[in-house]
Amino acid sequence: MILLPQQKIYKNLSYLAQKKLSNITVYTDGAAKGNPGAGGFGFVLLYGTHKKEFAQGYRLTTNNRMELLAVIVALESIKKKELPIHIYSDSQYVVKAINEGWLNNWIKNNFKGGKKNKDLWTKYYTLSKHFSIKITWVKGHASNPYNNRCDELATAAADGKNLLVDEWYEENKDL
Hints:
The chain has helices at 5-21, 63-76, 92-99, 102-108, 118-128, 145-159, 167-172, and strands spanning 24-34, 37-47, 50-61, 85-89, 133-137. It is α/β, with parallel strands linked by helices. A 5-stranded mixed beta sheet has the order 3-2-1-4-5. The longest helix has 17 residues, at 5-21. The chain starts with a helix and ends with a helix.
């Protein structure tokens, strides 16, 4: 079939419109057995018919670090930077820091006043500049199957063997 010039334009516009409408959906969760204690995070990434799950555990960390690390590692795994990303998290700490401008203030003031997790927040801030991100809070341990799956992943990772070392936390936990 041969397309006339205007048909090619419409076909390309349709393709671009479809690409613009599609987005990547990410569900994240973090867990810690004790706070601090062994911890883990998990995420579920959805794009079209594709689904990716990932989890990792650490021997000594905090719940907030795992909540934030789930978002960071999920973003690091995304190859299609041109697509909008919608992240769902049950962490008020993460969602409010981003949506209510806390993070911007922390960056501006170089985390003055002992704000925690500077290493991870700085990493998130740098990563976020490469994406169009919307983040939404979801109630944890409720009826959302993807959030519940992330909780399972995070908890299993925290309970797992071969836990990684959260080096920054272990070196700076007394600050």
